[in-house]
């Protein structure tokens, strides 16, 4: 299907690829990964013939039909449904020729064209386009609106629908999930699983890559290495290779020590069985990921909040919206230090509106909003990059936030976000989207907020930077509300999920796998659409019993850990080891030994309960 033979590519003075060779066979679904700037989009441009290699050869079959997503859409007056249908170029050509043949009363030509339309599924094309648009979030009414009436993000969805309408042999997708909500991401991955052609997809969403790809092409240090399997398999194989390199061992040790601290904190604080079960599955993947990204250029942590008020925020029967019409109503939400909440729901349901209310950018229409006096919010909005000063440098941006900071302290801080050397003094106007996103994030967290509001923070971030963000969020001491289509980030950093849908914001009792199942069943379920309806009644009863057991075990763990902490504190008293207090010491030592054995037993039961829940 596609062969690169000894391809070398330069962009200006910079070499992106040197003697890269690989072959992609028909039907493969290849994830193209690598840091920003390694040449992923340039590789697509070579496949499309828009770029020629400096040496070597790119080979494609003759008469191949390639589909790709246009990056811009003019403000057309064309109806959205018709715009999507335009992706099937042969259909449109047959329709145009049929109109001419009918005007000429050319019966033979008319019959031939109708035969061709039947062969390519032309009579069902409008239905197919409508289903595509519906899956991408367009209502029946929206499908009849003009392209010009949609915002930039929705026009990108239209471009995606148009590419999917093409009956292609090779489909090229560059960050297709960037403008989608989770609902549309789940739909797209199912569509791609059933795609018959060859797929090449650039994405920084590892869950999406695992769901749709069969192979992974990694661009790194001017090389292109093809791995079998999805992203997780690539991480494992890369981690094995890197573990043999002495240069990264010290970094691995630091990252794995950090991971162990996270696991210990999780075990001590886990309160919800479903989230706990999901987190256990993440631990092994995070460990593998830490090793695979051990040579990352990014390493940063959030400076600790100065104060952690409790509660931070309370919303009581709040209605939110624009004008007089509420988008959400009856919202009751409390945020405490350490809370990590992921907001789920389709675009337009009100996730960003809720975050704007909490940030203070939007007033409540009714109800009560109580903010702690010491509440300090760090707000990363969807369009945060637009707030940057294009003519200012990273150093100047930080100077404006903290005029008293030393130049070296600012350089050290920016270095964690990979702004080094003279780069910290350069105007950011020519910076890439990824570099601007990193700077925007650095500015949001610099003032040491105790509540982070993150609305799609990973757009433009590559996988290494996402890994660094994930590690930093895991050890953040404050609270967090996260909206993201990056399921890995949500799963690895959030302890609770809230669903924003149909004018309500309510806790979701489940993990992202449950949410995907709920979405798939929602269209076939009438009346009560709660996620519980997705599960079989007998399985529900069994799960309830297991969750009760797990909850009791968590309570026992908490009490046992608290008593052990008391004993450890008392045993730190030097006078306890005097001869006169030997009996007291022996009693405490014996109790400590028994409690530790009991804690091991409780943890073993708890883990067994988690495994049983997972098996259901």
Give an account of the 3D structure.
- The structure is a single chain.
- This protein has 21 helices and 18 strands.
- With 616 residues, the chain is α/β, with parallel strands linked by helices.
- About 3% of the residues have low confidence.
- Among the domains are: 221 residues, Rossmann fold (3-Layer(aba) Sandwich); 78 residues.
- Keywords: ATP-binding, Coiled coil, Nucleotide-binding, Repeat.
- GO terms for molecular function: ATP binding; ATP hydrolysis activity.
What key attributes describe this structure?
single chain, 616 residues, alpha/beta, Rossmann fold, 6-stranded mixed β-sheet, 21 helices, 46% helix, globular, AAA+_ATPase, ATP-binding
List the helices and strands and how they pair.
Elements: E1 2-11, E2 14-24, E3 29-33, H1 40-47, E4 55-59, E5 66-68, H2 80-85, H3 89-104, H4 107-119, H5 125-135, H6 140-143, H7 152-165, E6 170-174, H8 182-193, E7 198-202, H9 206-212, E8 215-220, E9 223-228, H10 231-243, H11 249-269, H12 273-292, E10 313-322, E11 325-335, E12 340-344, H13 351-359, E13 366-371, E14 377-380, H14 394-401, H15 407-415, H16 433-445, E15 451-455, H17 463-474, E16 479-483, H18 487-493, E17 496-501, E18 504-507, H19 512-522, H20 537-570, H21 582-615
Helix pairs in contact: 3-4, 5-7, 10-12, 11-12, 12-21, 14-15, 20-21
Domain ABC transporter: 2-246, 313-527
Family: Belongs to the ABC transporter superfamily. ABCF family. YheS subfamily.
InterPro entries: AAA+_ATPase, ABC_tran_Xtn, ABC_transporter-like_ATP-bd, ABC_transporter-like_CS, ABCF, P-loop_NTPase
């Amino acid at each position: 299907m596609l062969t690169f033979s000894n391809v070398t590519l330069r962009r200006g003075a910079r070499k992106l690829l040197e003697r890269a060779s690989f072959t992609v066979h028909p039907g493969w679904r290849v994830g193209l990964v690598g840091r920003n700037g390694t040449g992923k989009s340039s590789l697509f441009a070579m496949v499309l013939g828009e770029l020629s290699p400096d040496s070597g050869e790119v080979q494609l079959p003759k008469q191949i039909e390639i589909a790709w997503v246009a990056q811009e859409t003019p403000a057309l007056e064309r109806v959205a449904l018709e715009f999507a249908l335009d992706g099937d170029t042969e259909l449109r050509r047959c329709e145009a020729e049929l109109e001419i043949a009918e005007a000429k009363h050319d019966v033979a030509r008319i019959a031939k064209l109708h035969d061709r339309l039947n062969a390519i599924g032309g009579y069902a094309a409008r239905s197919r386009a409508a289903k595509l648009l519906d899956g991408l979030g367009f209502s029946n009414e929206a499908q009849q609106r003009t392209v010009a009436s949609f915002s930039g993000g929705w026009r990108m969805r239209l471009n995606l629908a148009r590419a999917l309408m093409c009956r292609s042999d090779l489909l090229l997708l560059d960050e297709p999930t960037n403008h989608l909500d989770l609902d549309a991401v789940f739909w797209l991955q199912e569509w791609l699983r059933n795609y018959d052609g060859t797929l090449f997809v650039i994405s920084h969403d590892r869950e999406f890559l695992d769901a749709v790809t069969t192979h992974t092409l990694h661009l790194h240090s001017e090389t292109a290495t093809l791995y079998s399997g999805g992203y997780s398999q690539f991480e494992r194989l890369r981690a094995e290779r890197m573990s043999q390199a002495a240069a990264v061992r010290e970094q691995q040790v630091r990252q794995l020590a950090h991971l162990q601290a996270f696991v210990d904190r999780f075990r001590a604080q886990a309160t919800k069985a479903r989230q706990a079960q999901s987190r256990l599955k993440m631990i092994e993947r995070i460990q593998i990921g830490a090793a695979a990204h051990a040579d990352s250029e990014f390493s940063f942590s959030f400076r600790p909040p100065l104060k952690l008020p409790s509660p931070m925020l309370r919303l009581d029967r709040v209605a939110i919206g624009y004008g007089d019409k509420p988008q959400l109503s009856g919202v009751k939400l409390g945020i405490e230090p350490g809370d990590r909440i992921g907001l789920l729901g389709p675009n337009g349901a009100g996730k960003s509106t809720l975050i704007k209310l909490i940030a203070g950018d939007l007033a409540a229409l009714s109800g009560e909003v109580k903010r702690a006096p010491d509440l300090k919010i760090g707000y990363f909005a969807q369009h945060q990059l637009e707030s940057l000063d294009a003519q200012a440098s990273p150093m100047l941006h930080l100077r404006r936030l903290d005029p008293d900071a030393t130049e070296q302290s600012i350089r050290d801080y920016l270095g964690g976000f990979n702004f080094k050397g003279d780069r910290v003094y350069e105007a950011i106007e020519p910076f890439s989207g990824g570099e601007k996103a990193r700077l925007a994030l650095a500015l949001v967290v610099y003032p040491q907020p105790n509540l982070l509001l993150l609305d799609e923070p990973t757009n433009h971030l590559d996988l290494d930077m996402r890994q660094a963000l994930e590690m930093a969020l895991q050890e953040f001491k404050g609270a967090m509300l996260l909206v993201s289509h990056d399921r890995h980030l949500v799963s690895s950093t959030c302890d609770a999920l809230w669903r924003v849908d149909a004018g309500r914001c309510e806790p979701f009792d489940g993990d992202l796998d449950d949410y995907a199942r709920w979405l798939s069943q929602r269209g076939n379920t009438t009346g009560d659409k709660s996620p519980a309806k997705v599960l079989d009644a007998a399985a529900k009863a069994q799960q309830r019993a297991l969750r009760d057991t797990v909850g009791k075990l968590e309570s026992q763990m908490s009490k046992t850990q608290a008593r052990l902490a008391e004993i450890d504190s008392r045993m730190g008293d030097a006078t306890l080891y005097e001869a006169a207090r030997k009996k007291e010491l022996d009693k405490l030592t014996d109790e400590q030994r028994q409690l530790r054995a009991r804690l091991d037993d409780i943890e073993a039961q708890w883990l067994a309960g988690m495994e049983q829940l997972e098996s259901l």
